[in-house]
Amino acid sequence: MLAEVRGALRARGRTQTQWEIGSSAPSGLVDALIERGLVPDKDPYAVALVLTREPPAISPLLTARRIETLDELEASARVQWEAFEATPQEIDEARRLLPERFCDSVHLRHSVWLEGEIVCTGTATPTEYGLLLYGGATLAHARGRGAYRALIRARWDEAVALGTPALITQGGSMSRPILERLGFEQVGEIHMLLDSFS
Question: Given 3.20.20.70, 3.40.50.300, 2.40.160.40, 3.40.630.30, which CATH number is that of 53-165?
Fold first, then answer.
């Protein structure tokens, strides 16, 4: 299985990936992957979280909604690149894919504006159980002002509009405390491993 995944990634020009192993995986899988050369990620442990009740309203100083233009998508991507400390190579690759991602109707991108600037963003994928959230990020200068809470509220409203009032995500050391304060409940554990190969 590991060789097959690496082969598929090599064919796409990739030499590194992250594995996320949930608590429902076979016992011993994490140790078996480490024995085969994978290493714990810099934030190696997270929890699976679900929100099934309405989160708080947002501050009137913030606007939170789904992005509507390619320029908004690029501004949102810049927030993630900065927050996740993306390398120049990662940014170049992601920038090339923006037009394709803008036309993607499967992944929804929500953003939060503060004083006309996009300061927080995240992606979501609709599922039959609710919105699956990932990539939530806030610029450093906007943290502590309710932007991430506003992002969660915008995604909640989207989930309700889709008829699946639930948000599903994972929380690492930074986001878990915020998510739990907003009412998310733990439903599982996730181990993150990095795999580098040539």
Answer: 3.40.630.30
